[in-house]
Amino acid sequence: DLPPLPRMHMETGGGEQKLPVGLRRQQRRIVVTGGAGFVGSHLVDKLMARGDSVIVIDNFFTGRRENLAHHFGSPRFELIRHDVVDPILLEVDQIYHLACPASPYKTNVMGTLNMLGLAKRIGARFLLTSTSEVYGDPLEHPQKETYWGNVNPIGERSCYDEGKRTAETLAMDYHRGADVEVRIARIFNTYGPRMCIDDGRVVSNFVAQAIRKQPLTVYGDGKQTRSFQYVSDLVDGLISLMEGDYIGPFNLGNPGEFTMLELAQVVKETVDPSASIEFKPNTADDPHKRKPDITKAKALLNWEPKVSLREGLPLMVSDFRQRLLNG
Ligand code: NAD
Ligand code: UDP
Ligand code: UDP
Fold this sequence. Notes:
By secondary structure, the protein is α/β, with parallel strands linked by helices. It has helices at 38-49, 105-122, 158-178, 202-211, 231-243, 260-271, 295-301, 309-326; strands at residues 29-33, 53-58, 77-81, 94-97, 125-131, 182-187, 190-191, 216-219, 225-227, 229-230, 250-252, 257-259, 277-280. It has eight helices and 13 strands. Helix 3 (158-178) links the parallel strand 5 (125-131) and strand 6. Helix 4 (202-211) packs parallel to helix 6 (260-271) and helix 6 packs across helix 8. Bound molecules: nicotinamide-adenine-dinucleotide and uridine-5'-diphosphate (2 copies). One uridine-5'-diphosphate binds next to helix 2. It is an enzyme of class 4 (lyase).
């Protein structure tokens, strides 16, 4: 094993304002796994803006270099193409662990294990981005963090649900057994600029369909609900959690609850009032409703979302228009 590096007092890079030593905030070295993805790249923007040194680990499974292109050349930024299923040696203070592909059991288990092993070796704080899917098709509504969930262990979506549940278990095990400082976020459906266009999520589907003048595909009767959070609110919550004193888990989501038919209506109003709706069969084990109880995050992290769906959607729509019409 490599010994941990001494905490370096790094200078900020060329062209940036340099404060006298006494006034400089200690610069942190931070790893963001999955940092080339949708949420990760926004998180990286915020960490870079406050002066931290950021290393992104990403295998570009769904992430894109373009999401980070504006940081290339900064002496505080590094991008490593690496699969977190393989071990890696680094020296950092904090690890935001977001890496997660679409069919993700191995990444959630092996990748989380490696990042926890890394955190243990170097004494870094570790944040896991878990998911509201750990609640499965919930029998409690809205969901509090104390709810244990209703998950089918052998269903089509269980490699995601159970993968994240296992990742939470590993994080708590490393916390109890190896004193790793862990933080757990349970993220509810999040949307915003840079979201994957074609990965089948409902907001990206509806927005892309409306822009392409295709019918919006509503699965099932469209009465199932979700709660949609704008990405900047999530990033604020992740940073508050990492910097705070509480392990969690914390629900990070917007309590505003919409049926898929209501969402289709908001997308129509925002993009194209003449868009039509087409009903399609729903997928197996689709949760009927989901809405976060965020009392705990409000009280302990002093966090709550600020951006409503009607405010956030236009910001995503302009990004999607640009990407769809230019490529
Ligand atoms: P995303 O697909 O845009 O980002 C995931 C990133 O991880 C991508 O850049 C991908 O290339 C990378 N990656 C995947 N497998 C990897 C591996 N084995 N090694 C290295 N990198 C790998 O997804 P996102 O929406 O930004 O999600 C980020 C995190 O938040 C994920 O852990 C996800 O489960 C969680 N989350 C997101 C939402 C949401 O609504 N967006 C909801 C709940 C939880
Ligand atoms: N690991 C890593 N980087 C490190 C330290 C550990 O990727 O800097 C990996 C290591 O290869 C192992 C996992 O993290 O696969 C768990 O490490 P830990 O030391 O907890 O477990 P052990 O190796 O003792 O089984
Ligand atoms: N959905 C839909 N049309 C689509 C894609 C999804 O009606 O084109 C529905 C899906 O059945 C589910 C909800 O939207 O009830 C949210 O799906 P998504 O995959 O975005 O998120 P998750 O199910 O993981 O919360």
